[in-house]
Design goal:
By secondary structure, the chain is α/β, with parallel strands linked by helices. A hairpin with a 6-residue loop joins β6 and β7. It is globular, with a radius of gyration of 19 Å. The two termini are about 40 Å apart.
Length: about 350
């Protein structure tokens, strides 16, 4: 790796009982053509020998932060960001394998676009490498997001796009100067939606996001937390509310419950017909379990509302883009209720 004092990029990996995936991830970093980087690992209380394996097998990992328990995605990444030396902060999930040109392509794109605070990787399915996981994120009008192109066969249909709304935290580059300006991850989220919040805060501050099709990563989707677990469903919906409260202009926020009701109606149909995330959830659990999770999520969102309301005043008070630009995001990077509700 590059000289520790002069590295361009700091790659951060958060791990929680991911030893089976972590070795593949770190091996792919060993083969990167771009060499001016350091790797920081944050372990969230793993009990599977992950840390011992890394120390023995990958002694070049410059920093290992060991937490006694799972502190979540945001806290763990923030712990590493404040120690990072690079001009660019690069997040990489432990359940990924990076193409050898991945990091170099991200850094080159950032160097070529000084107005870009973020760069999104082309994330493909680990087992079916011609299938897209995401190429950046799209957003629904109530604040919920979904990966662009998810589950589509990759025929280069997004490779000409130079912009996306914001990157997936699975494999993303953030300019350190942007983070110094807007702040780090919101640690109240724990997991899910925190990359949405950070990305939209960056956009509101006037930073752009570049999609980098040459930066390919292969991802085992939700390998650590499970694709349709009650814990994930709870966090996704609670945090979606907080994103909406923090970010959406008032004119959009007041009508967002209408869009949520439309989504719920189609998700109910999906639960009955086995389509979409609701259908997959109810195939493993029950419809009653899903309703209970959603009610719990909304109650948690309500009692925790003071923080996002306080953050809203700070974020929107400093925004540098007009309302017309925000409306453009939802027009050009929006997602239909049918797609958000009925696709996996």
């Amino acid at each position: 790796m590059g000289n520790r004092e002069t590295v361009s990029a700091s790659v951060i990996i958060v791990n929680w009982n991911g030893r089976d995936f972590l070795e593949t991830c770190l091996q792919s970093l060993e083969t990167q053509q771009f060499r001016s980087f350091e790797v920081l690992l944050v372990d969230n209380g793993s009990e599977d020998g992950s840390v011992a394996m890394v120390r023995e097998r990958f002694p070049w990992v410059v920093s290992i932060i060991e937490n006694e328990k799972n502190l979540g995605f945001g806290i763990a990444n923030n712990q590493a960001i404040v120690r990072a030396r690079g001009r660019y902060i690069v997040l990489l999930n432990n359940d990924t394998e990076a193409d050898e040109r991945w990091l170099g392509a991200l850094v080159a794109a950032a160097e070529a676009a000084p107005s870009a605070g973020m760069c999104a990787s082309k994330i493909l399915n680990f087992d079916r490498r011609d299938v897209i996981d995401n190429t950046g994120h799209l957003i629904y009008r109530d604040g919920l997001n979904r990966g662009r192109g998810r589950l589509e066969v990759d025929v280069g249909q997004y490779d000409d796009a130079s912009e996306c709304l914001f990157p997936s935290g699975c494999a993303a580059l953030y300019r350190k100067s942007m983070l110094d300006e807007i702040g780090l991850f919101d640690e109240t989220f724990f997991a899910y939606g925190d990359d949405t919040d950070l990305g939209l805060r960056g956009r509101l501050a006037g930073w752009q996001c570049v999609f980098v099709p040459a930066a390919r990563v292969y991802h085992r989707y939700s390998a650590t937390t499970g694709q349709y677990s009650p814990a994930k469903a709870f966090l996704v919906e609670r945090n979606r509310v907080w994103v909406a409260v923090k970010i959406l202009p008032l004119s959009m926020l007041v009508v967002s419950p209408v869009h949520t009701l439309a989504r719920f109606a189609l998700q109910a149909y999906g639960a009955l017909t086995g389509r979409g995330a609701a259908g997959r959830f109810t195939s493993q659990y029950s419809a009653g379990s899903l309703i209970r999770v959603l009610l719990k999520a909304y109650w948690a969102a309500l009692i925790g509302l003071e923080h996002p309301l306080r953050e809203r005043r700070r974020i929107l008070g400093r925004k540098k883009v007009p309302g017309a630009e925000i409306r453009r995001w939802f027009r050009e990077h929006g997602i239909s209720v049918r797609e958000i509700a009925l696709k996996d």
